[in-house]
Amino acid sequence: MSENGINNSGFSVAISVYKNDNPIYFDRALSSITEVQSVIPNEVVLVVDGPISEDLKKVILKYKSKYDFFNVIYLEKNIGLGNALKIAIDNSKYELIARMDSDDVSSPTRFEEQLKYFQLHPDVDIVGGDITEFIGEEENIVGKRVVPVKNIEIREYMKKRCAMNHVSVMYKKKSVQCAGGYQDWFWNEDYFLWIRMWLNGAVFANTGTVLVNVRVGKEMYQRRGGKKYFESEKKLQDYMLKNKMIGIRTYFMNVIKRVIVQIIVPNRIRGWIFRTFARS
């Protein structure tokens, strides 16, 4: 038992980096999961998704030389986030795996909170939490995404919207792999995985606390629109309907909402909708 009261048998962190990532942001993300955590990882599985800049390579070398638990996997070409994360999961040594993005900031007690939750609730397959969102300085909070806490609430919420903040989750490797693992799906590889875990009987939970401060740009809400994004979301709705996760009425309501938000309304209005109804 550790000084934090955690019986920690070890956990991994899965993270991917690619050429367009900012080296300064990447450095900050890695420092937030190593240098300031109350419980540091036993392993960081870092997948380098294709060729990257020299500055990004320097950041990787900095942490790999400092921490012997960094397992860096280099890919010759870019294969996309979903495929890169699948490689990270398959190569993780530990049953518990935390997800981390290359430009966000984990709270100092994030891993401690999640490990304690798993210790108290061994039946749970995945634990996430709330996120704050910032532009520029970390203190410049522009939004907060609060998600349901209990399994029954999460499963119901999942029928209409994604109920897990991807960058905040820690899950059991076996539970992810039994649901088919990460798969390539435009902007929705996480939601697609949660849906398959839902259908596979996984038990979900969120801590009700903020676990990650997410770096966003002013263009974030613009990316959440357009024909390609809508088609990706509609295919998810098709999948849920086919697998009887939702009924026809919910299906049509979900699709209509997405047509309006992602196709019809202009970017500035979409941003207002997300800030007003999808964030607190």
Description:
The protein is an alpha/beta fold and 280 residues long. 42% of the residues lie in helices and 20% in strands. Strands 1, 2, 3, 4, 5, 6, 7, 8 and 9 form a nine-stranded mixed β-sheet that branches. Helix 1 runs parallel beside helix 2 and helix 9 runs antiparallel to helix 10. The radius of gyration is 18 Å and the shape is globular. The N and C termini lie far apart (37 Å). The mean pLDDT is 91.
- Specify the number of helices: 11
Unreliably modeled segments: none
Oligomer: single chain
Cα(first) to Cα(last) distance is: 37 Å
Number of strands: 9
Mean residue pLDDT: 91
Q: Radius of gyration in whole Å, from Cα?
A: 18 Å
Strand content: 15-25%
Keywords:
280 residues, nine-stranded mixed β-sheet
Compile the SSE list and pairings.
Elements lengths: L10 E7 L5 H12 L8 E7 L4 H13 L3 E6 L5 H10 L5 E4 L5 E2 L3 H11 L5 E9 L6 E5 L5 H7 L12 E3 H6 L10 H11 L4 E12 L4 H4 L3 H16 L5 H17 L2 H12 L2
Short account of what is shown:
With 280 residues, this protein is an alpha/beta fold. It has helices spanning 23-34, 54-66, 81-90, 110-120, 151-157, 173-178, 189-199, 220-223, 227-242, 248-264, 267-278; strands spanning 11-17, 43-49, 70-75, 96-99, 105-106, 126-134, 141-145, 170-172, 204-215. Strands 1, 2, 3, 4, 5, 6, 7, 8 and 9 form a 9-stranded mixed β-sheet that branches.
